[in-house]
Automatic annotation (TrEMBL):
It comes from Massilia jejuensis. Its EC number is 2.7.13.3. This is histidine kinase. Keywords: ATP-binding, Nucleotide-binding, Phosphoprotein. Transmembrane segments: none annotated. Residues 173-218 form the PAS domain. Pfam families: GAF, HATPase_c, HisKA, PAS. Coiled coil: none annotated. GO terms for molecular function: ATP binding. InterPro entries: GAF, GAF-like_dom_sf, HATPase_C_sf, HATPase_dom, His_kinase_dom, HisK_dim/P_dom, HisK_dim/P_sf, PAS. It is an enzyme of class 2 (transferase). CDD domains: HATPase, HisKA, PAS. It catalyses: ATP + protein L-histidine = ADP + protein N-phospho-L-histidine. Residues 302-520 form the Histidine kinase domain.
Length: 525
């Protein structure tokens, strides 16, 4: 009796089977219905849905027949899954492959066996819908086609499970994104084409003196003392409207309001995204009110553009999945697109919120203390460990360096962003060097840290734009970043009252040197 052959995609097949989460689960009517129908249609005593894992065939549904599972070495389904057309044995005693099989020569005395493979959503054959009889029988082309049709019903249940799981994960992701938006210090309103509030975050609710949900359904003009001052109709797509006007809280009180709004088209429908804030609030660190507002507006403009593409993809593809029925491979491909776009959206939002928190908190939000440069750099390297490129980083820290005045967490984040940039813009085999030393005697007032790579380098124009939000240089290796890492780096370095110099030229790599004040040279503000 020959051993069952291994499918060429065995590892992928086993992973697909595990992903289904069906092994060793309770019987389900949706599968039992198919096996009952199969036994009745073909007039056989045994019909089963069997799943073949690495060591056994386990039966999810059974009419008549065998026990709950079989060793894979005795499984006829293990033979059937290697052929897309399935397998039919009309008389096992006359088939040299199975004439000596224990299940043929002994109990239950199998003589007839027919199976159609069951495909997981990725196309892997994870099991069969099989028929068994104790007497030989003929099985014509029409019957084989009918058995394949019944197997397709089972496979559709597999696909439905995966799709429902994916949609549930996307709903959880959407809830997570909403929770992240609620942490944004600025008020955020999403408006429909008639400028009616669809959603608001907690900061917007606090600004207008109401729970966020209570703002839903209100026209945005009801939140302004002069309705004409806030009309958005006719605003061109991608155009940004910036206004300072008199806002009206829910209790009727009037206050000075900054509003920045942009029209976007999502799934064919116009929407408005608006940031609102109290214009009388204290200015951001080291910036006049007008400069702070202009900077915020510019970042918002760029952020809305960056978020629109993945958000539109998520809405479009999930709407397709909800409204149309796709075959399993196509449905899986659409879900994978949605997942990738959601991951992109989450990454961009996380970095936007990092930047927003850093800008909003200013230096007063930092926890400045004497910190070891070596410890900060090791923490930065730990945060990029997931990139799998730490072996490329060469750390050279002079002994006996004085502690620097720093917020260790924020400073490690800044250096992590520089390291990620150097790794992304240099060849996989090339080193990235991090050197730290103290300023020359007789009166060292700073510790210098230089991150150097042998990557693509930058032109003068690219150097000038390096710290712009959402700017991405050409020549990145692998996944393109969000374009926020170096903007966050510069913001953190500025808050530490540190200096930064960038030296780079095309094809000759880049070095970023940071001059950090030693502890005692700068006081916490």
């Amino acid at each position: 009796m020959p051993a069952p052959p291994l499918p060429p995609d065995e590892e992928r097949r086993l992973q697909a089977l595990r992903t289904l989460n069906l092994l060793d689960t309770a019987p389900e009517e949706r599968f039992d219905r198919v096996t009952r129908l199969a036994a009745d249609l073909f007039g056989v005593p045994v019909a089963m849905v069997g799943l073949v894992d690495a060591r056994r065939e386990w039966f999810k549904s059974r009419v008549g027949g065998l026990g709950p599972e079989l060793p894979r070495a005795l499984s006829l389904s293990a033979h059937a899954i290697v052929d897309d057309a399935g397998m039919v044995v009309e008389d096992a005693l006359a088939d040299e492959r199975f004439a000596a099989h224990p299940l043929v020569t002994g109990e239950p005395g199998i003589r007839f066996y027919a199976a159609a493979p069951l495909a997981a959503p990725d196309g892997s054959k994870v099991g069969t819908l099989c028929l068994i009889d104790r007497a030989p029988r003929r099985f014509d082309a029409r019957q084989r086609a009918l058995l394949r049709d019944l197997a397709a019903i089972v496979a559709r249940e597999f696909a439905a499970d995966e799709l429902q799981g994916a949609l549930a994960r996307e709903r959880e992701s959407a809830a997570g994104l909403r929770a992240l938006i609620d942490q944004l210090p600025e008020g955020v309103l999403v408006l429909d084409e008639n400028a009616v509030v669809l959603s608001a975050n907690r900061a917007a609710g606090a600004l207008f003196g109401a729970e966020p949900d209570a703002l839903g359904g209100r026209g945005v003009e009801s939140l302004a003392a002069d309705a004409d001052s806030v009309r958005l109709a006719g605003q061109a797509e991608d155009a940004v409207v910036t206004r300072q006007l008199s806002g009206r809280r829910v209790d009727g009180s009037i206050f000075s309001l900054d509003l920045t709004a942009r029209a976007v088209v999502l799934d064919g429908r116009r929407r408005y995204a608006a940031i609102v804030r109290d214009a009388a609030a204290p200015p951001e660190h080291a910036l006049g009110p007008r400069a702070a507002s202009e900077r915020r507006h510019k970042t918002f403009t760029l952020a809305s553009h960056e978020l629109r593409t993945p958000l539109a993809s998520i809405i479009g593809f999930t709407e397709l999945l909800l409204k149309r029925e796709f075959d399993a491979p196509t449905a899986r491909e659409l879900v994978e697109i949605v997942h990738a776009q959601a991951a992109t959206l989450t990454t961009v939002l996380n970095q936007i919120f990092d930047l927003a928190r850093i800008e909003a908190g200013g230096r007063r939000a930092l926890h400045i203390a004497p910190e070891s440069v070596n410890a900060v750099l090791l923490q930065a390297m730990g945060s990029i460990e997931a990139l799998g490129q730490n072996a490329r980083v060469v750390l050279a820290v002079d002994p006996g360096l004085p502690p620097v005045a720093a917020d260790a967490h924020r400073l490690a984040m800044a250096f992590s962003n520089v390291l990620s940039n150097s790794l992304r813009y240099s060849d996989e085999g090339s080193p990235v060097t991090v050197r730290a030393w103290s300023e020359a005697a007789p009166a060292p007032g700073a510790v210098l840290v230089r991150v150097s790579d042998q990557g693509t380098g930058m032109s003068q124009e690219e150097r000038e734009r390096l710290f712009e939000s959402f700017y991405r240089g050409a020549g990145a290796r692998g996944t393109v970043g969000t374009g926020l890492g170096m903007a966050i780096f510069k913001e953190i370095i500025d808050l530490h009252e540190a200096g930064v110099e960038v030296a780079s030229s095309p094809g000759k790599g880049t070095s970023v040197t940071v001059r950090l004040p030693i502890a005692g040279e700068v006081t916490d503000a």
